[in-house]
Amino acid sequence: MCGIVGYVGKNNGVPVVMEGLQRLEYRGYDSCGIALLNGGGIELEKVTGKVSELMQTIAPRQMKSGVAIGHTRWATHGMPSRANAHPHISQDGKIAVVHNGIIENYKVLRDELENTGYIFSSETDTEVLAALICQAYSGNLEHAVREALSYVVGAYGLAIIHADEPEKIVCTRKGAPLIMAVGEDEYFVASDVAAILKYSKNVIYLENDEIGVITRDGIKTYSSDDEQISKKIHKITFKLEEVEKSGYEHFMLKEIFSQPQTIYDAMRGRLLPEEGNAHLGGIDHMTGAILHADQRYFTACGTSWHAALIGEMMFEQFARLPCEVEYASEFRYREPLVDAKSIVFAISQSGETADTLAAIQEAKQRDAKVLGICNVVGSSIARETEAGVYIHAGPEIGVASTKAFTSQVTVLSLLTLKLARLMGMSQENGKAICQSLQKLPENVEWVLKQADQIAEIAKLYSDASNFLYLGRGVNFPVALEGALKLKEISYIHAEGYPAAEMKHGPIALIDESMPIVAIAPQDKTYDKLISNIEEVKARKGRVIALATQGDERIKDIADHVLYVPPALSFTAPILNVIPLQLLSYYIAVERGCNVDQPRNLAKSVTVE
Ligand code: F6R
Asked: Does 346 sit in the ligand 1 pocket, CB within 6 Å?
């Protein structure tokens, strides 16, 4: 998704902004640009393509300024092109705007502005903002921005400069993330902390419609009613190494291999092995409300939605608490049966997903209690929810979510354990679950040791056009997740199915060209899954089986077997997803795909 970086300070902001844009590359983009104030006016450069190309383009110009804004664009309105790339300049050449989000009423505004003679030079919604600010300007940029935005419907994170106020960036947001940061005699604005982490860990979060005015003298913030307000400075706890590759070829591989640690971090201080229980500081006070709610919902998108499906199964099986899982994008529009007696869990890695935020608003409007399970500290979802749990996976840079998924499921296991104990699960069973959770990091290490074997299998299947993933129970969402990982990074069509559903349709697709990934641990449906594998083999399908360590029988029927240690259904999905993450990673590498930044995808989807 689009990225914003801005700098005001004593140094040259150009390299700072360029480096910040590179750190935002992981979010996905197709064009980029930079604008700066050089005393005489605005200097601008934009390119379609990578930040490295922008760097090459500006290198001969030796651009220098203490005030600069930059942007990586992920096209929504208009093709990726130099004209559509940000920053957008107003017709008088004095204002430069970078924007994340979507202006929903831009067409009406654009028509009105064109009727007054305004000439647009791009197809974007953003250029409408430059035009509106230009028309509203009478010597004070923040006032002009406020007035311009009063005509606007939509979502935005914005950073704006004006040639007549050469030491200032004005920024604001609504529904799209934006932070400001304080360094030593220098100040920053960014859509993501990763962009400026090298320079500052002191961050100010802007709320919807608040305006930040950044000058060399500091940062001033104004409420939506235009009152000057003082904002808390938050300390970022993660380190720069966490947003670097640290010797791995890709962020995705680093993140897959970091899972023994990130899973441990998700449990740290929360597991009570002696008591066979768990403690989740952020929502312990809500457990009564969760138990007694009339309806419980999980809402999320993509990979987080798969984690929610596992949460639902665990809640119902172990805590005997009924609940439902809804795509956040559907929840909002289907008049959900939610009221003051409902609990809604919103699950999100980024904490900025527009659909999930919209579902939260819907639930809140219906007076439900909304709890968050988030990774990014201080994110919009973390702030919009009444209470919640952080998964503490650290920054996830690879667009395909891996470590966040296993940490989400880990937190859902802890929550299930806590609720199950309150619903009557014995201490003995609770202790067994704690033991299984404690062993997870070690067991994940064990699974990761098969990476080389998985890389070899990947070579055999990288030319496939379709894949089918089969699993049952908690492994059905794992099958969905395996298929999603494969399609997003290798562009191979893949589908996940509950294994027994295969015979109700997908079996028609099976022939020698169709690889099947069968998740077949030795649980209560093992024999049924073996029958499914036999059915696949009878039709010449090729099978990669995921089996329990020590299972020799499956070797006779599957073409390849990957092993995972025996696990309870609390921990099985976490272990089983890891070989699938590695399989898609190595297949994508084999196919020469851009693993960390797959085409058309964005790390956080801040548009509905
Ligand atoms: C898949 C993936 C996406 C996200 C989805 C929700 O690898 O990353 O499907 O899971 O966009 O994002 P969050 O969890 O940030 O709300």
From this structure: no
